[in-house]
């Protein structure tokens, strides 16, 4: 009889079709979220554990990493890793993997859905119809804005940002981007100043990484530069946008629309955004398709298996 490798799973991967079940079938899983005292559980059960499974929702901080003396690999479900202390992991020689690429297209598709929904007032229109107001009140909802042929600014031209940009070309849009540094392998225009990019753009899509380095990157100045007809879309991480400044800009008429899949204090959403017809709101579903969640699950499991088979994960975080 083959002995299963023991792993620690930080939290339930409820957003994936069968991840919890497949992990339990293949490994001896310590379900950390079910332990009454996490610190005690790590001290008592962690010796000999070399691999941890987590996600951006649960992370892996330095305390967890340092509580596991034999840890060698952290395999995360999802592309974001801002809640994993990668520096602490690498200092210990611990590999960290995520699941890039497999969710790129679905997140980019959703960004475009939000963009069009915001510009064409789709959310407001649906509420109008569902409330029985069509034909019962004078007129209809306010006019929206055209999307095709406009100016698209992208904050963060990584895998997802580039996929969003490619779709923009299909809509006959001019595309520019803001990054920490200019890329020499793309033809899109580069703006070193995010405020200047916002002032130029009709649509500003946030696709950058999360974490302390990008917290409130999109601030009051950027939002007001986008202007009273400008539309901001966020499919990255909520804290990248200063949410209080966003609400203030919408209420003051200094920003046209916010189309958001992520929020600064999830799952809490400001009441002002919930009530606003200038906002399109989704519950963080960028990767939430059957195909993509299955692919994320598969890649997470492949990283874990590769570590145990070869000592190396497949998609390491640098």
UniProtKB/TrEMBL annotation:
Record's keyword terms, sorted: NAD, NADP, Oxidoreductase
Residue ranges occupied by any D-isomer specific 2-hydroxyacid dehydrogenase NAD-binding domain in the UniProt entry: 113-286
GO CC aspect terms: cytosol
InterPro entries: D-isomer_2-hydroxyacid_DH, D-isomer_2_OHA_DH_cat_dom, D-isomer_DH_CS1, D-isomer_DH_NAD-bd, NAD(P)-bd_dom_sf
Record domain D-isomer specific 2-hydroxyacid dehydrogenase catalytic: where: 17-317
Keyword check for Oxidoreductase: yes
E.C. code: 1.1.1.215
Pfam families (UniProt xref): 2-Hacid_dh (PF00389), 2-Hacid_dh_C (PF02826)
CDD domains: HPPR (cd12156)
Family according to the record: Belongs to the D-isomer specific 2-hydroxyacid dehydrogenase family.
The protein's name in its UniProt record: 2-ketogluconate reductase
């Amino acid at each position: 009889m083959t002995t299963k490798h023991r792993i620690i799973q930080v939290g339930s991967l409820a957003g994936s079709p069968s991840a919890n079940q497949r992990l339990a079938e293949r490994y001896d899983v310590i379900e950390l979220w079910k332990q009454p005292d996490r610190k005690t559980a790590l001290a008592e059960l962690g010796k000999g554990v070399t691999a941890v499974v987590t996600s951006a929702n649960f992370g892996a901080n330095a305390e967890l990493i340092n509580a596991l003396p034999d840890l060698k690999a952290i395999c995360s479900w999802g592309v974001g890793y801002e809640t994993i202390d990668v520096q602490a992991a690498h200092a210990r020689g611990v590999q960290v993997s995520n699941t890039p690429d497999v969710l790129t297209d679905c997140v980019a598709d959703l960004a475009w859905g939000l963009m069009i929904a915001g510009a064409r007032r789709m959310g407001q229109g649906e509420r109008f119809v569902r409330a029985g107001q069509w034909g019962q009140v004078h007129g209809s909802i306010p006019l929206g804005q055209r999307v095709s042929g406009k100016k698209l600014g992208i904050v963060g031209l990584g895998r997802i940002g580039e996929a969003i940009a490619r779709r923009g070309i299909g809509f006959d849009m001019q595309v520019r981007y803001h990054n920490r540094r200019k890329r020499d392998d793309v033809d899109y225009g580069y703006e070193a100043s995010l405020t200047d990019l916002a002032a130029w753009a009709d649509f500003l899509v946030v696709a950058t990484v999360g974490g302390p380095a990008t917290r409130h990157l999109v601030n009051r100045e950027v939002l007001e530069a986008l202007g009273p007809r400008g539309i901001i879309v966020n499919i990255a991480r909520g804290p990248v946008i200063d949410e209080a400044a966003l609400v203030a800009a919408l209420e003051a008429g200094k920003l046209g629309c916010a189309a958001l899949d992520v929020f600064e204090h999830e799952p809490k959403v400001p009441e002002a955004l919930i009530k606003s017809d200038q906002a399109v709101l989704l519950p963080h579903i960028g990767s939430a398709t059957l195909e993509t969640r299955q692919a994320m699950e598969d890649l997470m499991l492949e990283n874990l298996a590769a570590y145990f088979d070869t000592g190396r994960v497949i998609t390491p975080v640098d």
